[in-house]
Design a protein that fits this description.
The protein folds into three domains: 119 residues, no CATH class; 102 residues, no CATH class; 130 residues, Nucleoside Triphosphate Pyrophosphohydrolase, CATH 3.90.79. With 388 residues, it is α+β, with helices and mostly antiparallel strands. Helix 1 packs antiparallel against helix 8 and helix 2 crosses helix 3. The two termini are 38 Å apart. Strand 9 and strand 10 form a beta hairpin.
Length: 388
């Protein structure tokens, strides 16, 4: 994270909040997938240390932070939300930002409810994606699907019909074209106080202990990530300000991202999953601390060996809108993409994919597709061909 010369201590505090959120997610996800007793104990200790990191900068005491972290039961990813931009009849533009939760309804239901209240149409698609992590907000990592509405109501009448922005989502959060969201910012080493450095040393020791004992490749990948985070810090002379790190108890609707990679002939790359034997486009869970577009690019590389770039967003796919409810990962951000080098050979990840094919739209109809891909793959072809 580049340190703002005008506010180095505040920037470092926000960076520490970000780091705590990433480590919180690593612990929650490891516990969700399950581990042996010793590894489970280490993950619980990691969660305690992640809470201790946040307690260095947040205004709440450690016990309250830890209670929020200990309430995690599902996968923890960037949380989806909406930014609604409403152009009113009097020339005013209203902006409302809210997360999607398991109790607040689906994405489709939210858009339909707001459109009905404003007596206007449901937007066809988001015009941008905003990201609190890229913006440097210290709240739990949230990405916002930006939708634009036009209403014949004036601002006062429209505002009375809308829920307010969630307080921790206030601030300057620029919206990006969906194809430009695979960003990997060069943040640089995180400046930390000696106390924080000691906490990171304890976390690094946990990761080292895990790597000496666990054999599961996914658990090892997790601990390598944790160790790398601890190394990417440097001691500095700091005085952290007390900041508000947002709604730590916000309900996480976990999110995945996939990449519909097309070749020059308009064929789509699909892989045969090793777990079910069915065909799917490359994809997987997004990680706290990475934009969802980058998650799609990363998953494509990990599963196929291809370096790809995004060309657009096909569908913000809320499975709950399609009667494909999935408690594990309800939201999928489905992107279109292309290989940076058309001649780059495939290199399949043995644990993820047993085969790969480039298919036409017609060939897709005859494949045994993984759940949800029977809807997403036709949408990918339609988006690639400019039909929607």
């Amino acid at each position: 994270m580049a340190v703002d010369p005008a506010d180095p201590d505040g920037q470092a505090a926000r960076g520490l909040a970000r780091l705590s959120g990433i480590l919180r997610a690593e612990a929650a996800n490891g516990l969700f997938w399950g581990a042996g007793p010793d590894e489970e104990a280490r993950l619980r200790r990691l969660r305690e240390l992640a809470a201790a990191l946040l307690a260095q900068v947040d205004h709440r005491p450690y016990e309250i932070i830890l209670a929020a972290y200990e309430a995690d039961t599902g996968l923890r990813t960037p949380m989806p939300g909406t930014e609604l931009r409403i152009d009113c009849a009097d020339g005013t533009r209203l902006v409302r930002r809210r997360r999607l939760s398991r109790t607040s309804g689906t994405l489709g239901q939210r858009l339909e409810t707001v459109a009905a209240a404003l007596r206007t149409r449901v937007p066809a698609e988001p015009v941008a994606i905003a990201d609190t992590d890229l913006a440097g907000l210290p709240c739990p990592h949230t990405f916002l699907l930006v939708y634009e509405f036009t209403t014949h109501l004036d601002a006062a009448a429209a505002a009375a019909l809308l829920e307010p922005t969630e307080p921790d989502l206030e601030g300057d959060v620029p919206g990006l074209n969906p194809s430009a969201t695979a960003l990997l910012p060069d943040r640089g080493p995180l400046p930390v106080t000696p106390v924080v450095a000691q906490l990171l040393d304890a976390i690094a020791a946990l990761a080292k202990e895990s790597l000496a004992e666990v054999v599961n490749p996914y658990e090892r990948e997790r601990q390598h990530r944790v160790a790398a985070l601890c190394e990417d810090a440097v001691k500095a002379d700091l005085a952290y300000p007390r900041i508000d790190c947002g709604d730590l108890t916000a309900d996480c609707v976990s999110t995945g991202a996939d990449a519909g990679v097309f070749d020059e002939a308009g064929r789509l790359l699909v892989i045969r999953r090793t777990d079910t034997g069915q065909w799917a486009v490359p994809g997987g869970a997004a990680e706290v601390g990475e934009p969802v577009g980058l998650a799609a690019v990363r998953e494509a590389f990990e599963e196929t060996g291809l370096d790809v770039e995004l060309t657009g967003l096909s569908w913000a796919f809320d499975k709950r809108d399609t009667k494909l409810g999935d408690d594990r990962m309800p939201m999928i951000m489905s992107f279109t993409a292309r290989a940076l080098d058309p001649g780059q050979p495939l290199r399949l990840a043995e644990l993820e994919a047993s085969d790969a094919r480039w298919i036409t739209r017609e060939e897709a109809e005859d494949l045994d597709l993984f759940r949800g891909h029977g809807l997403r793959i036709p949408a990918l072809f339609a988006r690639h061909r400019g039909e929607r």
